[in-house]
Amino acid sequence: MPKSKQAARANLESLYRIFTVPEAPDSTLGAIDQAICDDVAGFLGTHIVALERTLEDIEADFLSPVIPEEPTYVSEYTEFVKQKLVAQSVHTAAPGFVGHMTSALPYFMLPLARIMTALNQNLVKVETSKAFTPLERQVLAMLHRLVYRADAAFYPQWVHNSQHALGAFCSGGTIANITALWVARNRLFAPAGDFKGIAAEGLPRSLKHLGADGLAVLVSRRGHYSLGKAADLLGIGRDNLVMIDTDADNRIDLDLLRLELQRLKSENIRVLALVGIAGTTETGNVDPLHAMADLAATEDCHFHVDAAWGGPTLFSEKYAPLLSGIERADSVTLDAHKQLYVPMGAGMVVFKDPTALSAIEHHAAYILRHGSKDLGSHTLEGSRPGKALLVHAGLSIIGRKGYELLIDLGIERARHFAEQVRQHADFELTSEPELNILTYRYAPRAILGLMKTMCLAQKCQANLLLDQINQLIQKVQREAGKTFVSRTRLRSRDYGTKVITVLRVVLANPLTTDEILQAVLEEQLTLAQHPEVRELLEQIEALAAPLSISQTSTED
Amino acid sequence: MPKSKQAARANLESLYRIFTVPEAPDSTLGAIDQAICDDVAGFLGTHIVALERTLEDIEADFLSPVIPEEPTYVSEYTEFVKQKLVAQSVHTAAPGFVGHMTSALPYFMLPLARIMTALNQNLVKVETSKAFTPLERQVLAMLHRLVYRADAAFYPQWVHNSQHALGAFCSGGTIANITALWVARNRLFAPAGDFKGIAAEGLPRSLKHLGADGLAVLVSRRGHYSLGKAADLLGIGRDNLVMIDTDADNRIDLDLLRLELQRLKSENIRVLALVGIAGTTETGNVDPLHAMADLAATEDCHFHVDAAWGGPTLFSEKYAPLLSGIERADSVTLDAHKQLYVPMGAGMVVFKDPTALSAIEHHAAYILRHGSKDLGSHTLEGSRPGKALLVHAGLSIIGRKGYELLIDLGIERARHFAEQVRQHADFELTSEPELNILTYRYAPRAILGLMKTMCLAQKCQANLLLDQINQLIQKVQREAGKTFVSRTRLRSRDYGTKVITVLRVVLANPLTTDEILQAVLEEQLTLAQHPEVRELLEQIEALAAPLSISQTSTED
């Protein structure tokens, strides 16, 4: 055999080996696999947020755009992953990581995710997913029932109906929200007479058909940014996503909403949908869903509820009433990778009307044939993994009562923490936790007292300085890597339409204790002793000084 | 302590246990984890396609829409998964499963996917992904370079540029194609003067701004169904996705394309994009990319190439020239879960112009701030898992040369199999494999000979009967569960515009051998002996009978 042919054969053999499951766990690959299992366990056991290296520093390990010519040993690559990636990732499961919507995962998700990966099913069609298709349909039915509580007679005819689907499974809440508005749009512009419908004719002709000058979606200013993407993507335009100001509790202001609806009518702009929020991303508040459902009924428009965060509150007998009215929504978004504690990449949208998704139905000759039960004919995405298994596992293993405990725990911990913040002389609670999210800021009572004496311009200036202080505290705390809170910008009820920087805490990790939260505050107090912070505080005091001098002189 | 409080505490404790990594592998959860690892290995080791139970039968295990009230033991649930799900899933990795774009996975993907799941990073922003963000940016650069071969000086300024991204990572090719056309649409209607751009103003006003009566996307009839979804979603309308007929080799007919471009111009319809296909889903053919790039330049429109399937052909020095011209595309879709051998749910789109994605840029106050390196500001999806790790692992461990071997193997095996089909007296090759996909049908030479003597109406009738035969063979073969080929409907070069049913074989699994392919054909020959098939063949013969009698008499 010529040498080049020998080499080619040797390469092929090593390739076959890569694609073959090692027979014994003590083979090289088997041993590496085991070592990784152990290592992940060890990694997840250390409950600290990652130590900070600057991003620029980390980037140095990921610079080359060149795909390596030669293969690398798995062991060598694994070492690289451990050193350069795992050690430099964010411990989203750490109980002190309370800044984003992440949590510790139930441990059973790991082996089950492994099964899912190994089976590598493709949910776009039954031919490549088999039992996973009925499984996903069942999961959609379970969540449909959680939201809509249809009676027992409803489900048997719809769960495995080849013509319809009770909802769409997708990679996350963004796709879920887009799917909901896509369905709403295509139902509004359904085929009628000569008009073939928007799916065929497009938006410009559809508007003409309806005799409308525009199309609008209304949501509160706390609406998720995915709605802006949806308005852009669907051809509606971000200008036509009307953001309504909120009341003092970050809920949509119904009077302003009614005014906008009148304005739109007078401008001949058709309302496509009202979007209610059940758990705003930044403050965890819930819109007045019943009142919005009433308005949607009057306007004859689609009512969508974005419950990506708050949906699982429905598991709790005590707190489900906070979401009252959600059962009147035409569609509801839920994110399984949030409070269903499923690994990243699992969203859903369920529809009250089991025929609603037909508005976006599509077919193809080699798959998704008419009459098949292929789920791909009703989803925005094409090929999709079997993530529904992990949702099914969570619902089964944790159970309704288990999720109830998790929900109750988070809400009650948030209320307790809010009380701590409220009573603390150096912090200001900037939004009450309705669910399990709250915001606050470092703002010593003495400073706030001074600010009360200021004119509006001075107050604004003082708030800008407080913004800087809170940004600094948040940044340094993140970089120290022990705990993590996020920050965002909110309108403050006390400063009119001005926006202030606040710290944001999300309490969904059951391993987060009151002690950890106490430590978060203490660390922030320590950081507030930093000379830079002190100097900014002095600047605020200086702002007030002329006024307080004049006040003093008046009192004299 | 009252009994209910005791019960609540007991429940809480079991909840904490669920969220905690077991310390010893011999704990209950640790043992189950290990058992599942072993079991997956065992399952993947048996290389047969799943035994068929009817879907209705399987559905009986997934009927209840009720979320269980009480928790289930992990061990009990795992048993359910093994019996009801794993045993009833499709062995997409089986070497005899050659009907869809699935393959065996490189084994190292399993432990690395476990790391990814355990770390549960969220790539929407650096704060929840850290090193995974530079990693994903590097992967995008590697694939950008694979496609565009920009010189070494190009990459350092773009790979980790906070203002831009060389591409977007997403859940699959559908989102990638939608993203590409979304970018193209928003670039065509960019802000200018008083016009704020389509992202803000929407499609109807944008069309007016441009003074056009419509918007069109052109692709060959072999275009993926995701393009129809994109046309619908983006408000363009499916009627404006102009599907051009193909030549005898399933490539876009350039003359017809030119005619359509002329027609659109005469109707004042603006061409948004031409879409070339590098590896059609059904037949694996590649459009004339250079000629299409020329036309796109003349039309001044976006040129997108859907290389979800064929892209990795670029790894092969020998076969990369088949995709010549792809480097002239404005955007290119690639699917990592296809020929990069990554588990389901990993797609990408790369853009020639590193500033192109700015057209869909979006921001939010609590994340995705201006100037951050957050990848979420340039993606359609929001929260996303760290799948880029698995692409990076494949590129590193398999290497360019490893992928080259895989590509060469698939193409050469397809050519070899095509030769076998061509020479076989009972099969007809219906599309030549340009890459590693081919189609054929059961159509004995004697029958085809008879059909040559038929009038067109008879030929059509005969083809309908052959369609039935091939559907039957495909269905029974799938149900038998030993091997699997898919079927689709194609225009046949021999029957004018008529569409015929063909069997489709995709050769991307390196464990598929020539012997297995031989066995696929033999099984089909056995199935063709079925009385039902025989009867259908007799019906074709009967169709020809009157003609052959008259022929015979003429010859007399």
Helix-strand layout with pairing:
The structure is a homodimer of 556-residue chains.
Chain A (H helix, E strand, L loop, with lengths): L2 H16 L9 H18 L9 H5 L14 H12 L23 H11 L12 H17 L18 E4 L2 H16 L9 H4 L1 H8 L3 E7 L5 H8 L7 E4 L9 H13 L2 E9 L11 H11 L2 E5 L24 E5 L11 E5 L36 H10 L1 H25 L3 E5 L5 E6 L2 H8 L3 H25 L5 E6 L7 E8 L7 H14 L3 H25 L1
Helix pairs in contact in A: 5-13, 6-13, 7-10, 13-14, 14-17, 16-18
For this structure, the quaternary state is homodimer
Strand content of chain A: 5-15%
Q: Structural class from helices and strands of chain A?
A: alpha/beta
* CATH level-two architecture of the domain at 414-555 in chain A: Alpha-Beta Complex
Write down the CATH topology of the domain at 414-555 in chain A: Aspartate Aminotransferase, domain 1
Distinct helical segment count of chain A: 18
Poorly predicted regions of chain A are: 547-556
- Write down the secondary-structure element order of chain A: HHHHHHEHHHEHEHEHEEEHHEEHHEEHH
- What is the C-level CATH assignment of the domain at 414-555 in chain A? Alpha Beta
Give the end-to-end Cα distance of chain A, rounded to a whole number of Å. Answer: 108 Å
- The helix content of chain A is 40-55%
Overall geometry of chain A comes to globular
Q: Compute the average pLDDT of chain A.
A: 90
> What is the CA-atom radius of gyration of chain A, in angstroms?
27 Å
- Number of separate strands of chain A: 11
> Biggest interface and its residues per chain?
A-B, 180 and 179 residues
Main-sheet strand order of chain A equals: 1-7-6-5-4-2-3
Strand count, sense and barrel status of the largest sheet of chain A are: 7 strands, mixed
The fourth-level CATH homologous superfamily of the domain at 414-555 in chain A is Aspartate Aminotransferase, domain 1
